[in-house]
Amino acid sequence: MHVDLSNRTAIVTGASSGIGRGIALALADAGARVVVADLEETPPSDADRTTAERVDDLGGTAAFVECDVTDDDAVAALVDATVERFGGLDILVNNAGISHAGTVEETTPEEWHRVLDVNLTGVYHGARHAMPYLKESDAPRIVNVASQLAFVAQPEKPAYLASKGGVVSLTRSLAVDYADVPVLVNAVCPGVVETELTRDSLADPERRAEFERQTLLPYLGQPEDVGAMAAFLASDHARFVTGQSFVVDGGYTAQ
């Protein structure tokens, strides 16, 4: 099965590093034009090339747009800039996200709202401004990045769990509301993925072994694993799939 996204334009938020970078590169490798949206364009700590530069290395087309997904006007400007440069929009990947550790007693209202604003309201902003253009596409897709923690709980992550559970529910809502177009809307729910954000934790042998024990497979996820699922959902191969959440966690939630 060959995933072909030629002549399609995608926006990926939070794409300068980590899972977002993996998704952007997967879409570009399948032929999509990719707009890399993030707070800044700097490459991840373990790389010397930005995401847009890596897309260029793959022979693809990319542009970077600075964007804070909590800012409704900034997201509107991101979508407008994409359409102005590439003539339309076919794929929106709402990936930008943050986490916070602490029980509800230890979480301030500011910390709570910050996590919800980025992880959930950012998805609303993206869908709200992208939808008019997606409805003009021949194959419109939204892929929201949630988490395995939308389905299972871990200690001291109430804001994160609430936000990712909300992303799964919003995914279903969007799929129902726009099925008549149809705009296909699905979610990818990663488990533990090796990125620069998890590298410090995974450098501790005991901590790494703990994470590895949580999966059925003898290895942890990589950004490209999530990217492959996102590219599939953005493709014609997923033409009969909408309103679903796909867990990419090495079998953690199967136990």
Automatic annotation (TrEMBL):
InterPro entries named among the record's database cross-references: NAD(P)-bd_dom_sf, SDR, SDR_fam
**Source taxon at top rank:** Archaea
The cross-references to CDD domains, in alphabetical order and at most eight, read: SDR_c (cd05233)
Q: Which Pfam families match?
A: adh_short_C2
- Give the record's family classification: Belongs to the short-chain dehydrogenases/reductases (SDR) family.
Under PANTHER family, the record lists:
3-OXOACYL-(ACYL-CARRIER-PROTEIN) REDUCTASE, 3-OXOACYL-[ACYL-CARRIER-PROTEIN] REDUCTASE FABG
Q: What is this protein called?
A: SDR family oxidoreductase
**Species of the source:** Salinirubellus salinus
